[in-house]
Amino acid sequence: MNVHDILYNSDEHVRFAAYLDQLQQVADAAAVDLLSRVLTDPDKVMAESAVRRHLDRRAACLYAGSAYEEWAQVMAEATIDNPLLAQRLREWALLRAVTLKLPWQPDGLLASSNWLQLMTAAGTNTEAVEILAEAGRTKRIRNTARASLNHRSEG
Fold first, then answer.
1. Under a CB-based contact definition with an 8 Å cutoff, are residues 108 and 94 in contact?
2. Which of 19, 24, 54, 109 is buried most deeply by CB count within 10 Å?
3. What is the mean pLDDT of the chain?
């Protein structure tokens, strides 16, 4: 089933699953075109959700390695007109920086989404986890960070 056929299905759940399947199978070089076509779906929320899920899957596989930067640049260009998707890519870049101990700013972490703060609170960067234990946006984030720190002190 190609993207044009998917658009003819009236059930957004079927289209969502089909988009994820197509995105999972596409080579990174052809992903930009496919992402653009998915984002033309009449159900904008569903289309953005499918693309965000794809970005999360690929970023999770790539962010610790050298292939991430080229992939992220291509995806940033593909999602430049979509603020939510562009934000998610920026947050993956921040998560990568924190995880790999590359330069990052605490203010950027504190201004980030609950998603990124929670991912970071459960991570390995002690400085970032300590910041979130004190000033994470939600009680869940602060508790996760504290538990992470306590686990390290026990080990």
1. yes
2. 19
3. 92
- Using alpha carbons only, give the angle 73, 76, 80 rounded to the nearest 5 degrees: 150
CB 1 within 8 A of CB 15: no
Q: Per-residue confidence at 85, pLDDT binned at 50, 70, 90?
A: very high
Per-residue tokens: 145: 């960070």
Q: 95 φ, ψ to 5°?
A: -60, -40
**Confidence band for 109, pLDDT divided at 50, 70 and 90:** very high
The DSSP letter of residue 110 is: H
Distance CA 149, CA 123 (A): 10
pLDDT 10s digits, 6-62: 655 678 899 999 999 999 998 888 889 999 999 999 999 999 999 999 999 999 999
As given in the structure block, the two tokens for residue 42 are: 């009449």
Neighbours of 115 (CB within 10 A): 12
Residue 109, Cβ density class (10 Å: 0-12 exposed, 13-18 middle, ≥19 buried): buried
- Burial of 42 from C-beta contacts in 10 A (0-12 / 13-18 / 19+): exposed
Q: Tell the residue number behind the tokens 């291509």, with chain if given.
A: 74
